[in-house]
Structures are given as structure tokens and as C-alpha cells.
Amino acid sequence: MRTLDDLDVEGKRVFLRVDFNVPLEDGRITDDARIRAALPTIEALRERGARLLLAAHLGRPKDREPELSLKPVADRLSELLDGAEVTLAPDLDDVPDGDLVMLENVRYEPGETKNDPELAKRYAALADVYVNDAFGAAHRAHASTEGIAHLLPSAAGKLLQREVETLTGILEDPRRPLVAIVGGAKVTDKIGVLEAFLDRAETILVGGAMCFPFFSAQGHDVGDSLCEAEGIDPAKRILDAAGDKLRLPTDLVAGREFKPDTDRKDIDGVDVPDGWMGLDVGDDTATAYADVIKDAGTIFWNGPMGAFELEPFAAGTRAVAEAVAEAPGTTVVGGGDSAAALAKFGLDDRVDHLSTGGGASLELIEGKRLPGVEVLSP
Length: 378
Description:
Number of domains: 2
Oligomer: single chain
Radius of gyration: 22 Å
CATH architecture of the largest domain: 3-Layer(aba) Sandwich
CATH class of the largest domain: Alpha Beta
Number of strands: 17
CATH superfamily of the largest domain: Phosphoglycerate kinase, N-terminal domain
Shape: elongated
């Protein structure tokens, strides 16, 4: 990719695409990690004399819903930049000529997600140079992530560069052994990731509800557990191809219902009785997984081991999170729920790389084309 070192930005306006799709509650930002992740690129460009026009999306607006305005984001960015004023431009026809300007939610523009070439031209007319630092949106060919990059001198920001280099590095030249920890709800969402690691990792540890299609394929009872029917055949194919490389839970924690005050049962084995649902891996599994993790040279983790948001069923994910945080090897966490788990347990500063892009990181691991990255190739 072209990087910031390939651009002349002094005295120029840079259209900087960032990922500020942060969680809001009653108009207040509850987690500003994505804003803070963009600060190195913002500060590097400012130090080199660039004027910044920042662009980001927030949520999935159907119109111009005021609750999806980037005003709280602009205010928070100003605070993080020691009070430097960040002006919010209400629309593309009213963009002030300041040093720090943020466009209103780009998904307010009807052509944004359609990669409308006319909208890309309107974006390009506002700046001299384009920089993409929004890894979390790099797997989307939108007007502000792909279309505009064809029209201006363009490059990757520091965050996007680090994300791509780190994630491709663990596939191409990892320290051995490479251990992949894959959890979450659906096997079909992670088939590409599992297949990518079958050829590269020494061990794949599986947890979360996605283990139940594997158990069903093996003939086990899954009770009322979340078991994706469409995932059973793909799970069987993975089992046939993986051999001993794939590790599944050997014990479980079950609940009557998906709520914190439900009845709880420890299951020795993986057959879940009728009327119960598996909601976490058991202690034996957590200990065995932690033992594998501590001896890994490189670790990639994406997806929780269970319903960690419910405290009675958080132990398995907590044990894995602690093992990853304490591991001496290189640790890479693929965003999404895994990042949320690390934050919940106060461990998000204890890993080498915490990806800002859940879907983008998975697609990159799978070997898929990321339009927002490909367009920055020399």
C-alpha cells in the first residue's frame, strides 16, 4: 500500500476517512476507542502542515436522523486534541475552510453506500489528498472508502497500515506455534477463517455457540442450545479436514434461559439435556485452552467462548482473555465481541494488537479482497 510517507501534504487539505462508528447512549459516547485509535494519523498529518477534512459514518441512518449526528464525536475529538476546535460541517454544500473540519455522517448522503461516482467527485472537490484510516470500513466499496481514492493522490493512514501489516503477517510469517481461537454464534460466519487457519495454524480452539453445529455433526445432543442448522454440514467438512488440529470443548456450562438469573448447570461432557442450553465452556475446557495459549508463539482470537455478557456464563471467556493477556507470544485480537470482552475484564491494554475492524479483519484473514485497501496499492 501507499503510506503517508508517499504523500506531500504540507499546506494541503487532506480528506481523511476515519472509523468513528462509536457506541452512543442518550447522545453520549460510551466507548471512544475508535476515536483514540485514529489520533496517531491525525497528529502526524497536522504535524506535517496538513489541513484536515475528516469523514466518518455512524450507524445505518435511513434519513438524517439527528441521533446519528457526528456532533458528539466532533466534541470528543476536540477534547482528545487538547481543545483544538473541530468544526462540524452540516452538509457538503456548507464546508468551512478550517484546519480541523469534520463532515456530518457520510451515510446521510444517499449515494455513499452505493459508491456513487458523482458523490465521490463531490468529496474529491473538497480536498487535495485522500488518506484512508478506516480499517473497520475498508471491506466496503463506498464513495468515501473506495470511490474517492481513484480521484486524488491517496494512501493509507497509520492505523490502516498497521492493521493490514499485522493481520497479513500472522498468516504469512507467524512465530510458531500459531494458535487460532475462534468463537461466537455462527459457524457460517467463520467458515472462511477456519479454513484459512487449517493450512496455517498448529491448533484451532473453538468455543461459543458455534461449537454446537460441530457437536451435532458428531451426533451429540445439543438440547435447546443455539445451533445453526446451516452450519452443521460446513462443520462436518471442517471436522473431516482438520483432524487433531481442531479442538472442541470437553465440558460445558448450561442455563435454562438466556438471562443472568436463570438456573445454571455444569455438564461433564458435551451432551446438553432437553430444556437446557449451553452458554459457556466448562472449567476443564478453559484450563486446557489456556495451557495451549501459554505455549503459543502467535495467537489470533476472534469470538467469545460463551455468553460473557451474562456474569454466570462469563468464566470461560474470562479465562481465555486472561490467558491471551498473559501469553508471551504475539497476541492479535480480531475486534468485535472479543474486544468487548477484553474491555469488560480490564485487559484491552494487555494484547499486542487489538483490531478496530471486526468484519474487515475476518475478511482479510480469509483472503478476501478489501476494496478500501486494494485501491491504495501502488
